[in-house]
Structure formats: C-alpha cells, structure tokens
Design goal:
Layout (H helix, E strand, L loop, with lengths): L7 H16 L9 H28 L10 H11 L3 H5 L3 H7 L1 H6 L4 H11 L15
C-alpha cells in the first residue's frame, strides 16, 4: 500500500462539522435535529467524493505518485472523460461532485465507510439507501 488509508469516521466528522458551520454558524455548536439532518444531507456528496477518491487511490496510487487529496477525481475526469488538467484543477468540491455524479451514484461504499456515518443517520431518521449509498 502506497498511501495512508482514510479514517472514514474522522472524515465524516470533519465534513459534517464543516456543513453545520456553513449552514448555520450561530448554532453549529449546539445544533437541533433539523439542522443536523440538513448538515447530513449537505455533507453526503463531499463524503461520497472522498470515498470515491479513496477507492481510486487504492487502485492507482504508487510510492512515486500517492494521489493525495482530490487528485484521484482529477485523474478520473482526465482519463475517462477527456478533461484537461487545468480544467479539473480549478474545480470546487461541488463542481467535482456534479461532474462525477454518475460515478458517485454508482459507488459501492466499503463497510467501514457505511459504518462511519450510520450513527449519525439513525437518530435523524435518515435512511442510507435513500441517500444512494450502495452496499457491495
């Protein structure tokens, strides 16, 4: 293995914390159930993108090319869809999620990735299947 595997729980916490802050900075530290649910829904695309990058990293990373961060998504768009490097480097996370919508919708999350979010979904009555999370 040529990279440090993603800590799915830590990544999910980071993304949902950021979503809470973005959606309602004043109440991010003590969110109500509605705000938590909105943050979960807001966080899902970025989490899927990061899980997609992790899967691509596992397949294509080498010691001389660890494919850190969003580089696996960039590489995928270049190789599969013919995008240019300058074009993909300037994309926001939201742009990448849109450009990779089909791939993210078809992504089968590993058990560790699903388990990392399940504790947040259950109390807010969010069904993983309704978010498009595929099981292998």
């Amino acid at each position: 293995m040529c990279f440090t595997p993603m800590n799915y729980s830590a990544e999910w916490r980071r993304i949902t914390k950021s979503a809470l802050q973005e959606l309602d900075p004043e109440n991010a530290h003590s969110p109500n159930s509605d705000l938590c649910k909105r943050a979960i829904l807001h966080a899902v695309p970025e989490y899927l993108l990061n899980c997609f990058c992790e899967r691509e990293r596992e397949k294509f990373a080498w010691q001389w090319g660890p494919l850190e961060g969003l580089k696996p998504a960039h590489l995928h768009l270049i190789q599969k869809h013919g995008w240019t490097l300058p074009g993909v480097r300037g994309m926001t996370i939201q742009d990448l999620c849109l450009a990779l919508h089909h791939e993210l919708a078809q992504l089968q999350l590993p058990e560790a990735a699903r388990n990392a979010i399940q504790n947040d979904l259950d109390p807010h009555r969010v069904n993983a299947a309704s978010l498009g999370f595929q099981s292998p």
